[in-house]
Amino acid sequence: MPGPSPDRAGGAEAPLAELRAQIDEVDAQIVDLLARRLQLVGEVGEVKGRHGLPIYAPERESTMIEAKRELAARRGVPPDLVEDVLRRCMREAYAHEKNMGFTRQAPDLGPVVVVGGGGRMGSLFARMLTLSGYDVRVVERDDTPEQVAGAVTDAGMVVVSVPIADTVRVIRELPPLPADCLLVDLTSTKRAAVEAMLESHPGPVLGLHPMFGPDIDSLAKQVVAVVPGRDPEASRWLVEQISLWGARVHEIGAQEHDEMMGLIQALRHFSTFVYGWHLAHEDHDLSELLALSSPIYRLELVMVGRLFAQDPELYYDIITASPDVVALIQRYLTRYAQAFELLLRGDREEFVARFREIGEWFGPHAQSFLAESRSLLAHADSTR
After folding, report:
1. What is the mean pLDDT of residues 158-177?
2. Measuring CA to CA, which residue among 202, 116, 113 is closest to residue 150?
3. Residue 8 confidence (pLDDT)
4. Which domain, by its residues, includes 176?
5. What three-state secondary structure class fits 158?
6. Are 282 and 327 members of one domain?
7. What are the tens digits of pLDDT across the range 29-81?
8. CA–CA separation, 138 vs 128, rounded Å?
9. For the chain, N or C: smaller number of CB within 10 Å?
10. Are strands 182-185 and 205-210 parallel, antiparallel or unpaired?
């Protein structure tokens, strides 16, 4: 198809150049306003830090977003555009605020010892605790038993953050802790770890599971599962401290936690592993798959591919951490085979019935997920 004639293209250059210059000027003003916004965010962070306020205030966020959407509509600007920009600004704001420091919720607590504090998750918690004013010590695997004993002798809290397969052993090998020391673990399965802590330490015990990776910009809106162990009053300050960091805390029993993690982590990671294995052996070029992919399939490939950029031993440990996972995966395989039978029989009616049954289980969440996914897909498409 021929392009515009030289005369038409040449005639457009001058007005386009002028309009683009004006757009560049507006963009520069936007950058200046963003810089000013970050400056104000820093001041907000300092005030919150002095007064013990969490960096994430969901009511304030939702009220502000709704007000700006209404303002956008009145100004003739798409509300979704304004919300997208504001949410990106807020994400940067939370990352900026986390460096401002936090009120120390347990001012009289003794030193905090992070066992495995050189690892990624351990170093993240060590940093957040340091920002909150605690005296943090780090213990690593090459430290001698005498060094470990010296580090914990006057500890107010000991946090165990080591690989899943090593967690129970490391807990059992800890030297005696002060009677009032809070013992905490950060592993992704809780029943065995909490039992080991209760057996090894007569003082307060708390299980934590950060439901995020260590490469996050901020704990704002992240979820931390809290599994009670012993003497919950002695660990209340830590739960409050985590809330100040902006995380959402969800309390759950160890048994129920591990059952939920079977679905949320183990089954999902195993399914992703098998799907990636299948793709790798179907003899098709990944670049061609990407070239032909819709936004939703590209997003699926992104989520599959990110797994294989990470530590395979970690994911094996996550998948196999609970003895109940094998039975869970077996039930999944049984249902997969039953679904496949529908295709072999060409049973459209049964497929539709099962589809509707599943839709009823999701209930109103299905429609809200549909709306939520639109913004995710739009973002995925814009980054191609």
Report:
1. 96
2. 113
3. 58
4. 112-251
5. strand
6. yes
7. 999 999 998 888 888 877 877 777 777 888 888 898 999 999 999 999 998 88
8. 13
9. N
10. parallel
Residue 313 and residue 241 share a domain: no
Q: What does the angle CA 64 – CA 46 – CA 123 come to, to the nearest 5 degrees?
A: 100
Q: What is the rounded distance in angstroms from the CA atom of residue 97 to the CA atom of residue 244? A: 11
- Secondary structure (3-state) at 183: strand
Q: Is there a domain that residue 381 lies in?
A: no
Contacts 24+ apart (CB under 8 A), 371-378: 373/296, 375/80, 375/84, 376/299, 377/295, 377/296, 377/299, 378/295
For residues 229 and 265, membership in a common domain is answered with: no
E-strand spans in the chain?
Answer: 112-115, 136-139, 157-160, 182-185, 205-210, 223-230, 248-251
Strand pairing report for 223-230 and 205-210: antiparallel
Longest dimension (CA), the chain: 87
Could you tell me if 169 and 78 lie in one domain? Answer: no
Q: Is residue 338 part of a domain?
A: yes
pLDDT tens across 323-370, in order?
Answer: 889 999 999 999 999 999 999 999 999 999 999 999 999 999 999 998
Token pair for 371: 């709306």
**Residue 333 has what pLDDT?**
96
Q: Give every CB contact of residue 379 below 8 A, 6+ residues apart in sequence.
A: none
Angle value at C-alpha 366, between 349 and 220, nearest 5 degrees? 150
Rounded Cα–Cα distance for residues 117 and 134 (Å): 14
Tokens of 6: 């030289």
Phi then psi dihedrals of residue 250, to 5 deg: -125, 115
Alpha-carbon torsion angle 322, 326, 329, 334, nearest 10: -150
Q: Which of 372 and 328 is assigned the larger pLDDT? A: 328
Return d(Cα 187, Cα 119) in angstroms, integer.
13
d(CA 160, CA 168): 10
**Residue 75 to residue 84: CA distance in whole angstroms:** 16
- For position 247, which CATH number holds? 3.40.50.720
Residue type present at position 184: V
Lowest-pLDDT range of 65-69, 120-124, 216-220, 360-364: 216-220
- How far apart, in whole angstroms, are the C-alpha atoms of residue 176 and residue 275? 46
Burial (CB < 10 A; 0-12, 13-18, 19+), residue 132, is: buried
Total Cβ atoms within 10 A of residue 270 = 20
Burial class of residue 245, CB neighbours in 10 A (0-12, 13-18, 19+): buried
What's at 207, amino acid-wise? G
Q: Is 78 helix (H, G, I), strand (E, B) or coil?
A: coil
